[in-house]
Amino acid sequence: MQGQKSGSIIVEGLTKSYQVTDGGSNLFFNIFGKIFGSDRRLNKTAALDNVSFKVGTGEAFGILGNNGSGKSTLLQILAGTLSPSGGSFKVNGKTAALLELGSGFNPEFSGRENIYINAALYGMDAQQVKEKFDSIVAFSEVGKAIEQPVRTYSSGMQMRLAFAVIAHLDMDILLIDEAFAVGDFFFMQKCLRFLQEFCQKGTLILVTHDLASLQSLCTNGILLDRGRIVSSGPVKQVCEHYISGLRSDMTYSVESGDFNENERPEFSFEPIIRRVVKVEKGEWREEAFPDSKGRILEFKTLNCSGQITTDQNVELAAILDFDDHIGCPLFGFHLVNDKGVLMLCEIIQLKEYITNSCKGAFEIRLNFELPALKGGLYSLHCGIAEGTITKHRFHHMVHDIELWEISPDSLDFAQVRVSVGVSATEATTSRRQKPLSARTKLVP
User: Fold this and answer.
1) What's 5's DSSP letter?
2) What tens digit of pLDDT does each residue of 197-247 get?
3) Helix/strand/coil for 406
4) Is residue 331 within 8 Å of residue 320, measured between CB atoms?
5) In which region does residue 178 sit, left (phi positive, over 0), alpha (psi from -120 to 50) or beta (all else)?
6) Mean per-residue pLDDT over the chain, rounded
7) Domains of the chain (ranges plus CATH)?
8) Which of 102, 207, 240, 324 could form a disulfide with 71 if both were Cys (CB 3.0 to 4.6 A apart)?
9) Separation of alpha carbons 18 and 110, rounded Å
10) How far apart are CA 202 and CA 216, in angstroms?
């Protein structure tokens, strides 16, 4: 391990095989098969087959693939809970893993006792846990249930507690097997924010089916298929290969009669795409910064009574309070979906609108036309900073101010839809495109 930077991971030719018979129980066959002269054969199946990759210090690395592709097996090997059949790997640095729900918890012990036990497994002593205990419980949001046996917890509560412990460890590497997907919307947002902050200094390995989370957190990754790497490189490229494989599995044949012309869905190309957005109060999670000179006192959607529509001119209002002069104040807001993907964002230079010394309380109003977003849950966030749009220092942020809910629709084939005007005329040209069969195809 000498010469390797803390936080780096090197995997070379990793293989994991399991012995299986051609039917029935392996245990029964191993004990009684030879005695009774069974002619059943013992075969090997590879969960991982010659897997190699490198992850640099401070990199966020994604592992993508369908069920049974070997993702969880690979993560268990990197975590040290499973031994490989061949190949080698080096994990350089202090490592924490969140592999499956409730792993590392004793169901008969209370949440409090499990925090001490779980943290001790990662090298924290009792005094360190005591100092961070209140913060861990606050992060988990399990409340008074912390004194109850973990067996009485819901799956979401178990996940909250496990992630809360992980979030308070001083680790170089985190291995996450999509466990935070069990939580509710606001807790998922909190987990994603923590992971985004962790990625600024630590190394993250994320196993997931969720392309949005993968692309929002990771820069590089691999795609596994039946234990083999079929794509590696920038995460966008890996996701494109994954989607291309899904399209291949879903291809319809017109000649075979799979596609019925009379059953073609009718798409709406009306000039205005209107979707109803239900607006609810959020959790108002504040984030203060050192030497802060200002706070956000209020931020809300004005022109609505519980709902807005996607063709509506949305008006937002904020009350900001500055206790000292800020030369170049900025105010920004953004809307993220349930996977933490930024959907809408804008930063406003307040100096253009506030004429005095920018000290005291101010109300600002913003308005914009809301585009047709895909059905799902979204949360509204805002913050004040000082500097320029590209380089600034934060003073105050508020997360999860409002929850915007759009009902799913059968036409949700994109994250954002726009109104399109369509016209068609007959064209004459001497040039022809290459036939479709000759065009470059993207395949895994």
Assistant:
1) P
2) 898 889 999 998 778 778 888 999 999 998 999 999 999 889 888 887 765
3) strand
4) yes
5) left
6) 81
7) 9-22+30-247 (3.40.50.300), 276-414 (2.70.50.60)
8) 207
9) 36
10) 16
